[in-house]
Structures are given as structure tokens and as C-alpha cells.
Amino acid sequence: MATSNNWTHASSHRFTPTPRSPRFGSEPLKYGPLMHLQLGELSTIVISDPRWAKEVLTTHDIAFADRPVVLTTEIVAYQNTDVVWSPYGDYWRQLRKIVTLELLSVKKVKSFHYIREDECYNLVATLRKSAGSPVNLSQMIFDTIAKIVCRAAFGKGCKDQEEFIDIVKELFKLTGGFDVADVFPSKKIIHTLTGKRPKLESIHKRLDKILSDVISEHPGERSNTADHQESLLEVLLRLQASGEFKLTTKNVKAVTLDMFGGGTDTSSATLEWAISELIKNPKVLKKAQVELREALKGKERILETDLQDLDYLKLIVRETLRMHLPLPLLFPRECREPCKLGGYDIPVKTKLLVNGWAINRDPAYWPNPDSFIPERFRSNPTNVMGSEYEYLPFGAGRRMCPAAVLGIANVEVPLAHMLYYFDWELPNGAKGEDLDMVEVFGASVQRKNELHLVLKPYNLAQN
Ligand code: HEM
């Protein structure tokens, strides 16, 4: 492992490399499971092995519970007062409680089933109109998920929904990947020279205006009734008004943006990858369609409760999240108190990256790691987090994603609709193996080239 001047080796705790030779998929793991990088001004550790992931996300979880300051979120997320980017402490704990108990509880996620069912059915109706011709699924998938999240966040209260979605799309394009400004935090001038700051400020201003309008048009306290389901924003405004939590209007806006930002790109990327893998693996595709069509027996409209026992559909989503984590390095952490790792003294402010991508493809845990085999999860009880930290699509520890249930529902339900109502083909008679799987790093890892398919409506009366 490379060390820099900041790293003191404690000789009494020698760093012992793992005895086996972990690999990245079929490639050897060239730089070892615990690596130190000097990225600009930032001393950074990269963890690429389940054993070390467990160490940093359990034993040292509290030491690594901070997030580094990033230009984008400082501007867009109201000086990092959202859940994802706020520093570890009382304020974050309060937000986390709100998110877990109120916004993203299993009950709340289930209560929004009608939104997912509606929007997925709207997608089916749109796709039926283009049946037989190539459609740009990437775009349609993003728009469907964005509408689902928008309705959950704002209810019917956002007249500028389309503009809001377009601005967030613009923001996602601008973020992600390597940003030179973030690795030289003291050189504020770089932020302006790269032109990113003014662009982010303009995006923030436009989003803020829409959020202010929605809040000012909010009709006052409206709790859940038989014909009204509180939107996420309404829950936040209720909590703010009750005084139970100290929340400013900016805090409410920051958390609302988090729900939107966290919920759209990750789920739409996962759905796109699931469809891409199914096109490349026609036997898996067929099996999934048979499972659904036999279970639903020609039903005209799918309800979420119909999907409860569809094991194969669930295995497909898990396997997609293993191979295509939307956030392959999770979200970065920052060391907030000195600790020792593998015999090395880790100073405060060291950045930590957990390479979930390498971990989810570690051949010591996953035979044939580069092959799409949903069945592997039948014999593997791993849920959203591996018992040995070998499966980390949602991270782990205190700052683990609080929305795994919602994230999975937002993938499973649209995927079930696509599988049930349509047979799929690539345009121009191309074969599954011709489909490229080139990735691009934006806010999450997406397909570089948009996914176009020809969809043929399936005759439901056959079942
Ligand atoms: C397939 C979908 C999703 C995936 C794969 C995913 C993945 C992740 C990951 C890897 C992290 C970082 C965990 C860590 O640092 O250890 C995270 C954090 C977070 N995610 Fe998700 N996520 C998904 C969907 C969502 C949705 C739908 C929302 C909200 C509506 C959301 C909200 C958040 C928040 C608020 C955090 C920050 C938690 C904290 O710092 O305390 N995510 N997510």
C-alpha cells in the first residue's frame, strides 16, 4: 500500500495484506484492497475488499461518518444542510430520524403505491402508441421515475413539475465524475475558472424559485385522509410547524431536493441496466416474463400487491444492483476523528472511498462475477447488505441509504410493467450480444449510449 507523509505506520499493528488474491471481476486487483491516494490536496483511502469495508463501516463507522465538502452540494443543497451531505452531528441525526420515521418508512413508501401504479400504466399507454417502432427507453424511464418521485415529493402541488425535472436533469449532467475543484478545496478560484460555479448557482436559483412557489402555494396543514395522502413536502412542513424539529424553510427545501436527487437517477439507472442485461440474457428475460404472465393471468392492470411473491423479478433487481451499482464508490466519507486502519494512523479529514463496484464483483464471494445470474441469490440470503459486506449497493453503517425499500420499488414496479405488457427486441434485427454496455459517470453510473428498443404488445388474452 502506498503511504504519504500524512500516514504514520504503527509498527505494532503491521498491515497484513489479505492472503488470497482478490480480483476485479476477471482482472487482478492491481493495487490491493486498501489503497492510499493523494488526490490534489486530499489524502484519500480506497477500500476494495469486503473485509476492509466491514472494518470501516462497522468498527470505525463513527470515525468515518462525515462527508467531505463538495462544491456542487455546497451550492445546490443549501450549504450542505440536506441529509446526504450534512456533517455528522445533531442536525444530521435529526434529519435522519425524520427521513427514517416519516418520509421513507415502509408504511410511507407503501402508501405511494398508487403513484407508481399510475405512472407505470401511463408509461405502458405511451409505449403502446409507439409499438413496433424503436423508442428511446432511457429517456422514458427517467421521465417516468422522475414523475413518480415528483408526485411523492409534491403531491399535485407542483405546477412546474416538467421544468423542475428538466433542471434536475441538467444538474445531473453537470455533476459526477472527477471535479478538479473538489480536490483543491482551498483554491476557491478554480471553482470560478472552470465555469462550474456560475452554472450551479443558476441551477440552484431556478430550483429554489420552484420550491418557494410550491411552499407558498401550499394550502396549510393537511394530514392524511382517505382521499389525501400527505406528500413528502407536506410532512416536512407539518413537522416544521409543529416545532417538534427545528427546521428552517431552507432545511425543508434541502431535504425535499435530496428525496428528488436521491430517488431519480439511481433508480432510473438501475432500471436501464436491468433491461440491458435482460436483452443480453434472453433466457432470463423469458423466465421473468413467464413468471409474471402466469401469476397475473391476463389481468389488465398490475397492482403492487400482485408482485409481492414474484421471486424471480426480485432476484433480477438484486443481481442488477450487484453488477451495476448506480453509486459504485457509494458516497464519499471523511474521517472526523483519528483512527488506526491496518496499522496505519489515519488523520482527521482523510477522505474515504468504498469501492462497492469491486466488492460486488469480488470472485471470492461471487463465482463468475461478470455474468448476470439472478439465480445466484436463491442460495445467498444477502439482502440489501451482505453479511460479510460483500454486497453494498446501498452502502452500510450509519450513513447507509435510508431508502432501499423505495429505491427497489421504483425499479421493480416499472420493470414488471415492461415485462408483462411487451415483448422486446433491439432495432434493426440486432442481437442481444450486439448491445453495448459502455458506462458513463454522471450523478450515478448510466449507460453511455441511450437504450432504444422495439416493443411488441403481448396479447394478455393468451393467459
Ligand atoms: C436503487 C436506488 C438507490 C441506490 C442504489 C442508492 C444508493 C445509496 C448509497 C450507496 C448511499 C451512500 C451510503 C453510504 O455512504 O454508505 C446512499 C445514501 C443516501 N440515499 Fe440512496 N440509493 C437509492 C435510492 C434512494 C432514494 C429513492 C432516496 C430518497 C428518496 C435515497 C436517499 C438517500 C439519502 C438521503 C442518502 C444519504 C444518507 C446519509 O448520509 O445519512 N436513495 N444511497
From TrEMBL:
GO terms (BP aspect): sesquiterpene biosynthetic process
Q: Pfam families, alphabetically?
A: p450
Q: Where is the composition biased (Polar residues)?
A: 1-15
User: At which positions is heme bound?
Assistant: C401
The region called Disordered is annotated at: 1-24
Superkingdom of the organism of origin: Eukaryota
Instruction: Give UniProt keywords alphabetically.
Output: Heme, Iron, Metal-binding, Monooxygenase, Oxidoreductase
Q: List, alphabetically, the InterPro entries matched.
A: CYP450_71D, Cyt_P450, Cyt_P450_CS, Cyt_P450_E_grp-I, Cyt_P450_sf
Check the record and name the PANTHER family matching this protein: CYTOCHROME P450 71D8, OS08G0105600 PROTEIN
Family, according to the entry, reads as follows: Belongs to the cytochrome P450 family.
Q: What is this protein called?
A: Cytochrome P450
Q: Which organism is it from?
A: Cynara cardunculus var. scolymus
